[in-house]
Automatic annotation (TrEMBL):
Origin species: Limnoglobus roseus
The organism's place on the tree of life at top rank: Bacteria
Protein name: HTH cro/C1-type domain-containing protein
Cross-referenced PROSITE patterns: HTH_CROC1
Pfam families in alphabetical order: HTH_3
Record-linked SMART domains: HTH_XRE
Ranges of residues in domain HTH cro/C1-type: 24-69
GO molecular function: DNA binding
Residue ranges of the region described as Disordered: 70-111
InterPro entries: Cro/C1-type_HTH, Lambda_DNA-bd_dom_sf
Length: 111
């Protein structure tokens, strides 16, 4: 039995938008209050994480429930595992401390 190809978010967005009468990316962008560039990136799956606010704007413009796209959204990981924790360390601006209750000596208000 042949394997069923998974439809991406971008492919489904384009299909539903066109079925709803949006002939161009610009038409959908205008109706959703987004830029044409954003819609283009979404169509091409170049934006892997779609925020809830963008999804809501698109669904409102198209006239579909946001749950329609749930099977096409991913958490950004292609292997189904949980996203990895960031390896970035928090940065502290010079003259500031991580704990505001423990000011750096010599900094702060003069008496």
């Amino acid at each position: 039995m042949p394997e069923k190809l998974q439809v991406t978010f971008g492919q489904e967005l384009r299909r539903v938008a066109e079925a709803s009468g949006f002939a161009t990316q610009q038409e959908l962008a205008d109706a959703a209050g987004l830029s044409q560039t954003m819609v283009g990136k979404l169509y091409l799956d170049q934006r892997p994480n779609v925020s809830a606010s963008i999804l809501f704007k698109l669904c409102s413009a198209i006239g579909v429930d946001c749950n329609h796209f749930a099977p096409h959204l991913t958490d950004g990981e292609s292997d189904g595992t949980e996203p990895k924790a960031s390896k970035r360390t928090p940065t502290v601006k010079p003259g500031r401390t991580k704990n505001a209750a423990d000011p750096t000596p010599g900094k702060g208000k003069k008496k």
